[in-house]
Amino acid sequence: MIGGFEMKNLSILLMLMFFGLMACNLKEEHQTNEEYKLVWSDEFQYKGLPDSTKWSYDTEGNEWNWGNNEWQHYTAFNEKNAFVDGENLHIVAIKELTENKEYSSARLITKEKGDWLYGRFEIRAKLPAGLGTWPAIWMLPTDWAYGGWPASGEIDIMEHVGYEPDSVYASAHTKSYNHVQGTQKTKGLGISSENVFRTYVLEWDSLEYRVFVDSVHYFTFVNEQNTFAEWPFDKRFHLLLNVAVGGNWGGMHGVDSTIFPLEMLVDYVRVYQK
User: Fold this and answer.
1) Residues 6+ positions from 45 with CB-CB distance below 8 Å
2) Which of 30, 85, 132, 177 is at a distance of 20 to 30 A from 183, taking alpha carbons?
3) Are 13 and 2 contained in the same domain?
4) How far apart are CA 138 and CA 111, in angstroms?
5) 3 state SS of 94
């Protein structure tokens, strides 16, 4: 039996140990929060076209349907398809005949204006709802050092197809792992994402990359330490934001033409590095 004096001393000792552990945890959490520093952002607190010092328009794949048999024509410098209202970026898909395509939309990229090797990427966005929509937040290599797609890699932070209204997907595409071969690394998350703002997050370092929706971590792609065929993610990449219509995946169950125009809203894009 432990006496009263010893019991009191034991209680004090346990209390000190508890607060010591809490202090260590708080210190570790503080250090973790301090690891990343903001290096690039767009808060969209202006009006008009997207900031040309940060964003360009990708239209190069219009002639070949972007490799996915998509139905839209991506425009450039057209405020109907991409504009900022002082609070959000709007990427708008419209049903209108444009260059022999049934729909117009926009695909914005940071290439040569925002290119990074590793970091934490936060994009707060509200996704459109409806059959045939295919919004995406993703990354492509800037220099294609290992060759054309998929050898130099693709990081899909968020893809959503309208016929699955309660799911978003994260994927990795490389020479060894890609959807053409049926070997891509993909995972879906069942979460309401349409017409509600959520933060889509990528944390990427030399060992792996991790994808989150808000604080939910649901996908990890690991560097197997083999060759570039498995891990081409040691070169700089840039961001892409777009709303596609139809296509091999987005249009798998058809397109509801009555729902357009519709849009993806982006509250902010923030990039942090250690």
Assistant:
1) 86, 87
2) 132
3) yes
4) 12
5) strand
- Cα distance from N-terminal residue to C-terminal residue, the chain: 54
| DSSP conformational letter for 177 | S
* Cβ–Cβ < 8 Å for 125, 242: no
Active site residues: 154, 159
CATH number of the domain enclosing 159:
2.60.120.200
Both 165 and 223 in one domain: the answer is yes
Residue 143 tokens read as 């220099």
Residues 1 and 67 reside in one and the same domain = no
Pairing of strands 101-105, 72-74: parallel
Contact 249, 163 (CB under 8 A): no
- 3-class DSSP state of 201: strand
pLDDT in tens, 51-68: 999 999 999 999 999 999
Count CB-CB contacts under 10 A for residue 183: 12
* Residue 1 sits in the same domain as residue 55: no
Q: Which letter does DSSP use for residue 258 in this model?
A: G
How many Cα atoms within 13 Å fall on the side-chain side of residue 57?
A: 17
Domain count, the chain: 2
Q: What pairs with residue 221 in β-bridges?
A: 209
| Same-domain status, 69 and 150 | yes
Domain that holds residue 124: 37-273
Whole-number Cα distances in Å, 209 to 45, 47, 233, 234: 30, 34, 9, 11
Label the pairing between strands 262-273 and 37-42: antiparallel
Contacts with 273 (C-beta within 8 Å, 6 or more apart), sequence order: 36, 37, 39, 116, 118, 119, 120
DSSP state of 260: -
